[in-house]
Design goal:
Strand content: 5-15%
Structural class: alpha+beta
Largest sheet: 4 strands, mixed
Number of strands: 4
Number of helices: 9
Order of helices and strands: EHEHEEHHHHHHH
Radius of gyration: 18 Å
Strand order of the largest sheet: 2-1-3-4
CATH class of one domain: Mainly Alpha
Distance between the termini: 47 Å
CATH topology of one domain: Glutathione S-transferase Yfyf (Class Pi), Chain A, domain 2
Shape: globular
Length: 242
């Protein structure tokens, strides 16, 4: 099967969690945003599912994945579907459910990271909510960042099957996602994340191991992985990095 991934061009965003799983597994897929419009790609190809003919089960927003006749939305849901098919999830139902639970917790974490620079709402520019962003970021860095990182550090420590992965014996999609979050935090909050990660040696090792894997390393160097930028989830504003 050749999967079709639909997401906004020019940013990593939530689509990157899906891309990393597809890249690590060597799956054949089309990143529709990167295809020319005359070849059926680009934003118009995505919008036809969002604004076009009515679907019985439409996605709310990208990312969404077309797999044969299936159209699957929500990052964690896409990864729940792909995990067993790409050998990136445990075989037993309990293990798959645990991996999905961790991915949902990461989704909560990612939302809180995003809201540091957009605490009032996504309809306002960052420049319209700077005082609120500074206040939100101070609280996030002081309380929420260490709480989330500490939780995931303990999950690795307590994993009975591995001393370096979050769930099970082998790398899973949630490990790829966790590495992406660590990379994003290092971009957005270089000083604060350096301090917070000092007490999380297992998360640091997980990040390094993921981005040293051959397929992920080739993908990162290919030019197909968008660079972090300030139109994305992870944004660098020096005034927020306390």
């Amino acid at each position: 099967m050749i999967y079709e991934l639909y997401y906004w061009p020019g940013i990593q965003g939530r689509g990157e969690f899906v891309r990393l799983a597809l890249e690590e597994s060597g799956a054949e897929y089309l990143d529709i945003a990167l295809l020319p419009e005359e070849q059926g790609g680009g934003v118009p190809a995505m919008m036809k599912f969002l604004d076009g003919p009515e679907l019985a089960r439409p996605p709310f927003a990208p990312p969404f994945l077309k797999a044969g006749r299936r159209l699957i939305g929500q990052t964690a849901n896409i990864l729940l579907f792909l995990g067993p098919r790409l050998a990136l999830a445990q075989r037993d139902p309990g293990g798959r459910l645990w991996t999905h639970q961790l991915q949902l917790t990461l989704a909560d974490f990612v939302l809180e990271i995003h809201d540091t620079h957009h605490p009032i709402g996504g309809g306002f520019y960052y420049e319209e909510q700077k005082p609120e962003a500074r206040r939100r970021s101070r609280d996030f860095l002081a309380h929420r960042l260490p709480k989330f990182l500490g939780y995931f550090e303990r999950v690795i420590e307590r994993n009975p099957d591995s001393d370096k992965w979050l769930a099970g014996k082998r790398l899973s999609y949630v490990d790829l996602s966790m590495a992406q979050v660590v990379a994003g935090l290092r971009y957005a909050f270089p000083a604060a994340s350096r301090k917070a990660l000092r007490g999380c040696p297992r998360l640091r090792t997980l990040h390094d191991e993921v981005f040293a894997r051959p397929r992920i390393k080739r993908y990162a160097a290919s030019g197909r992985r968008p660079a972090f930028n300030n139109d994305d989830i992870f944004r660098r504003y020096a005034e927020l990095d306390a």
